[in-house]
Amino acid sequence: MTMATNGGLGRKLRMGIVGGGQGSFIGRVHVTAAVLDNRATLVAGAFSSDAARSKASAADYDVPESRAYGSYQEMLDRERALPAGERIDFVTIATPNHMHYPVAKAAVEAGFHVVCDKPLTLTLAEAEDLAKVVAGSKGVFVVTHNYTGYPLVRQAREMILAGELGEIQAIRAEYIQGWLRTRLESEGQKQAAWRTDPTKSGAAGCFGDIGTHAYNLGRFMTGLLPEAISANLKVFVPGRSLDDYGHAVIRYENGALGTVTASQISHGRENDLRIQIDGTEGSLEWHQEEPNKMTVRHNGKPHYLYTRDPNAPFTNDAGKVACRLPSGHPEAFFEAFANVYRAGFDAMAQAATGGAVEKKDTVYPNIHDGVEGMYFIEQSVASSKVGGGWLPLKHPLARR
Ligand code: NAD
User: Fold this and answer.
1) Which residue, by CA, sits nearest to atom 25 of ligand 1?
2) pLDDT tens digits for 387-398?
3) How many other C-beta atoms can be found within 10 angstroms of the C-beta atom of residue 37?
C-alpha cells in the first residue's frame, strides 16, 4: 500500500493527543512515530493537565491555538462537534497511568479510535471495564507495547510460530534500568515522581512500568498462553512505596517456564530489555539496545547472527514489512513505535472504508494485550504479598 492512499482512505488520519506537553517524554515520540509514514497529522491536543501549559505546548507541534484544548473533555466535546471531514479520527493517550482509563473510555464512547500507552489503566477492574466498552464499539484500540514493532522481533515471532525453534520450553525476559537508584522522585523529577506514586502509577512501580513490557514481549514472540505466576517484588530504595526491583516465574500452558526480571536500581543500566527463548530445535536472543541484530543458536552449528536486512533471503515477510531502510542504516525506537502505529492505521483505514475491524488477532498490541498486562501486574503484586505463592495468570480476555 502506498502512503498516499493510506489503506484506501485517500487522506491522512487526523490525530489528537492527550499529554505530550512541554517537559514530557513519550508524547513527542508518539507524534513523531505517527507522522513518520506520512499517514497521519497532529491537528489537536490537550497537552497538559494545566490548561495554560497545554496551550503553550501547541505551538511546539504546529497545532493552531483554536485546537489546543484546556482539558481532554473539552477536546472530545469540541472535536465531536466539528464536521466529519475536519474532526480528529483518533486520540493518542500519553499521560501518566491514572489518566488512561477516563480518557480512553470517554474517547471510545465519543466514537474515536484510541492509541493508549501502557500499562492500559491504573487497575485491572478499569481494564476489564474498558475492554467491554471497546468490544461494544466500532473503534480500533491500540496499546503501545512498542517493542513488538522491531523488525527482528516480528521476524522472531514468525520464525517461532512456524516452528523453526521447535517447541518453546523457556523464556527469559528482563528489563533492567538504573535511573531510580536514588530517590529522584524527591528532587522534583516529574517522570520519577508519578512513577513512584501508587495513586498515579498503580499497584506496581517497576513491574508496571517496564516488567509489563518484558512480559508482553515474551507473549508476543512466542504466542504461549500463561497459566500461573509466582513473583517477588522488592523496594530497595528507602522511602519508596512501590517496587523498584522484581522477579517473576511464569508457567505456560504447554509446560514451558518463563522468567521476568525488572529493575530500576541497577547501576549504569539504561534500557536493557533483552529476551532469550529456548526451543527443542534452537534458541534465540534479542536485545533492545542492539535491536538490528538477533542471535539464533543450534547445538553443533555456528551461531547465526541475523541482521535487520529487508533484502536478505533469511528475512521473513513479517521482518521485511517492518523495515524502512536498507540494512546497515540503524532503525530503532522511533521506527518500531511507528510500526505499531502503521498496523493501527491499516485497521483505522479499514474501519473508515466500511470494513469490519479485527479486535483480537491483530499485528498491533490491542485491548486484550492491555488487559493481560494489567492482570500480570496485579497477580505479581498479589503473589509477592504472599511470599511468591502461585496464582493464576490466564485471563479470560487473553489474546488467544
Ligand atoms: P511524562 O510525565 O513525561 O508526561 C506526561 C504528560 O501528560 C505531561 O505532559 C502531563 O502534563 C500530561 N498530563 C497529565 N495529566 C493530564 C491530563 N489530565 N490531561 C492532559 N495531559 C495530562 O510521562 P511519560 O514518561 O511521557 O509517560 C506517559 C505514559 O507513557 C505513561 O503511561 C508511561 O507508562 C508511558 N510510557 C511508555 C513508554 C513506551 O515505551 N511505550 C515509554 C515511556 C512512557
Assistant:
1) 25
2) 999 999 999 999
3) 17
